[in-house]
Amino acid sequence: MTESRPPQESPRSHERRGGFRSLMESIASLAIAVILFRAFVVEGYIISTGSMAPGLLGYHKRVVCPTCKFPFTFGIAFDKPDPESLLVKCPNCGRDQIEIGKVPRNQGDQLLVMKNAFAFLLPKRWEVVVFRNPNNPTQAYVKRIVGTPGDSIQIRDGDVWIDGNLQRKSLEQQRTVRLPVYDRSFRPKNDPTWKDRWLHDDDWEVTGGTFTCRQPRGIEATRKEANSWVSYRHWIRSGGEHETSVALRTWPVGVQIPNPVFSPLRYNSRSGSIVCRGVMSDDLRDKMLKQSKDEKFQDAIWKLYRQSHLSPILDTYGYNRSSVLSEHVAVRDLMVSMRVTVNSGRGLFTVRMTDGESVFDCVMDFGARRLRVYRDIENSEPIVEFALSKVNLGQEFLFEMSLFDRQLLAAIDGEPLVIEPMDEAARLPRSRNYPRQPLGFASRGLDVEVAQLQLFRDVHDTTGSARHGVAEPFHLGKNEYFCLGDNSPVSLDSRGWETAAVKRHMLLGKPVLVHLPSKPGKIQIGNYVGYFRIPDFSRIRYIR
Asked: Where are the alpha helices (DSSP H) in 41-183?
């Protein structure tokens, strides 16, 4: 009788079964690790609204201006269908009536949030946080902390004040919140209705987006002792709420202002001036000119027409609907960024900025290798002076200068050199003298090139519903925080909530990364056009 034995498994089948088991164990281990990682370390959140735009985006449409080609985002409601017709305005060149009804929608930014980041470390002022809404704990919000425990906080003139002291941002923090005003790399071309916002003296040549000034030589060098300037003026196409006046002592007999009740024009006989609110249109200009051949009247109308196009810079957001921005506020906290190359010479390169109250000149002396800062041009002594050691001839450098938060800040290649608080001015109410030509730069005795000119503005915190921290200071208790959104006109935050303070235990974490961003992909089959999400790696970025 023979003994029966079970069939032996081949080595290959044993390896296959062992490999499959290892794979399943690896998948299970990965799943457990992901669950634990999400439970205790990080979690993803998606932004649905535009309260932190344009830094962090809610549901939006991605628009490219047909005139200047400037790309910008426009916010839409996440819980409503897109309207068939939607008109927007370019925040760079002011082109109006841009139809984006057929532009596909895009989802909001997805944030990777470090949970329990504030279990041991307290959040700092200007830091972005995710927290539970104190008025509805089921909702998770993302805002920026501006008030910390024990602070007495108030929003005044668009700035944050703590315990009666104006709070100022560092260069890195300024870069985080700054909003574009005008990028000359995206200037309109072949557009007869557009006027360049950068005006230059004859010594400057303009090629594309680069301004070039040559060092005078020979006899011309002995004659040329003055600076050659390039100046910014905030020229706009239409609209605006600013007032422009031109002297006109006598109003011509028989001249009538068309539709005077609604007209932007009026004549002030007491001051002897004609006043225009906003930009004077071509049509209104022509109607006025046709009514009288009086030379002084004609000159006044033409002058008023030209000057009415120069506007203060307003707290506009290309992201918002125009209905939200029915009341604009003029802003003066500006930052300029430029790429500068000094090829030769021992002369001066000057950058000038004004907030309408003080004028600051940053003067780079390439003969003495010094950077000097002057306040209010008539002062002959610099308020501060530094060695210009890291700038070499023929080497491009990034120069940034800002007047955010009533503070002069200047930096070369990201390193702040000048930080000059305007404490005396900060204690006084701001005047209504908003500059229409707030900055410029000049060369004397240098071969210099200036490119990539960009102008930004600071966030201007509006009053909102003015419940808390606006009319009077709001006092924060122990473990309480005051939070604001960067998109101040539309943000629901501590200014208007019934419960203003965010308790420390409501903080969910610190967002560190925009991850898994997407953009609409297009598919067309016959007459059918559809959109689907595809990865957009260009939007992956760290959150600062």
From this structure: 171-177
